[in-house]
């Protein structure tokens, strides 16, 4: 695994990127590159059963909070330095990214080629870059800004990292912070 691993957010030539691609976890999952902005995804390279450990998360490095980082404690973010950086968000996630045990775990049975997605607020208190969610899940949150902006009732639907659970407990059950208003 490389010491640093970068994610291009915009791909102009997906075929060239595919030719140069060397998977970090061959046989477990791979990146499917697509042209455009934030269109690539991580997919399963084989079938997984619910609760199966898909991968041990290792080779990470501490880094600043940014769109590619994952929050692992109240004030520490890491870079995944692997294909895991392509785990996209879903409000109906196929996996949990357990940042306490550093494991990627199947939330349900996943077929080969199926997308690997996790619920970003499960580890992020306040996102570096919020975004509108178009995942299409029945209970889609519509706007992904971090756990700080979601009710405890919503957060209780998901696996939640211990640092996020602590912050939720400290703020109280219904004290979700209103999202920042854009000044237009």
Automatic annotation (TrEMBL):
Annotated SET domain residues? 82-120
Superkingdom to which the source organism belongs: Eukaryota
Q: Which organism is it from?
A: Linnemannia gamsii
Show the Gene3D superfamilies listed in the entry: SET domain
Q: Which range is the signal sequence, renumbered to this chain?
A: none
Q: What is this protein called?
A: SET domain-containing protein
């Amino acid at each position: 695994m490389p010491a640093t691993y970068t994610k291009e957010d915009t791909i102009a030539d997906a075929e060239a990127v595919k030719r140069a691609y060397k998977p970090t976890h061959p046989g477990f999952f791979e990146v499917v590159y697509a042209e455009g902005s934030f269109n690539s995804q991580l997919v399963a390279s084989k079938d997984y059963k619910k609760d199966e450990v898909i991968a041990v998360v290792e080779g990470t490095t501490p880094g600043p909070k940014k769109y590619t980082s994952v929050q692992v404690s109240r004030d520490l973010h890491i870079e995944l330095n692997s294909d895991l950086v392509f785990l996209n968000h879903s409000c109906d996630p196929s996996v949990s990214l357990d940042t306490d045990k550093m494991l990627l775990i199947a939330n349900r049975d996943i077929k080969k080629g199926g997308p690997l997605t996790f619920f970003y607020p499960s580890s992020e208190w306040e996102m570096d870059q919020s975004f509108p969610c178009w995942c299409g899940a029945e209970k889609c949150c519509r706007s992904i800004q971090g756990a700080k902006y979601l009710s405890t009732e919503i957060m209780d639907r998901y696996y939640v990292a211990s640092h996020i659970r602590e912050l939720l407990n400290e703020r109280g059950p219904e004290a979700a912070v209103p999202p920042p208003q854009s000044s237009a």
